[in-house]
Design a protein that fits this description.
Order of helices and strands: HHHHHH
Helix content: 40-55%
Radius of gyration: 17 Å
Largest sheet: none
Number of helices: 6
């Protein structure tokens, strides 16, 4: 996960230089999200498989789309808010421990984080209605 977000060499503890910047720096990502964890987990599944391409699971192939969706859905359905916060805090501490997060994006009602929080709240509300 470090290699994906930060840089390939950041995953190696003894690496003295970072040859290129990672996806997080290029795209202004400062925190880990459940979908980003699911994406990396799905990539790892693909790398460890013998398939030559990522598919939606046609015929006898593994469905990476289903894998990703199952991870995201199960995480949001099975973990309560405190567990989700704990999980994300743990991952953010491992991946972005060198970045100070001032939470300024949370205050913008149009930020990705604000939209994700609103979607999660709507999902929870929809499942609690009898």
């Amino acid at each position: 996960i470090l290699a994906h977000f930060k840089s390939p060499s950041s995953a190696i503890k003894d690496a003295s230089s970072t040859g290129r910047c990672g996806n997080a720096l290029m795209h202004g990502i400062r925190t880990v999200s459940i979908p980003s964890i699911a994406y990396v987990a799905t990539l790892i599944q693909f790398v460890l498989s013998s398939q030559s391409n990522m598919s939606r699971g046609h015929k006898a192939q593994f469905s990476y789309e289903t894998c990703y969706n199952n991870i995201v859905r199960t995480t949001f359905e099975e973990l309560d808010n405190a567990q989700l916060a704990s999980l994300l805090t743990w991952w953010n501490g491992r991946i972005f421990s060198d970045i100070v997060d001032d939470d300024k994006d949370d205050k913008d009602e149009y930020s990705v984080m604000a939209m994700m929080k609103a979607q999660a709240a709507a999902r929870r509300a929809a499942t609690t209605v009898p």
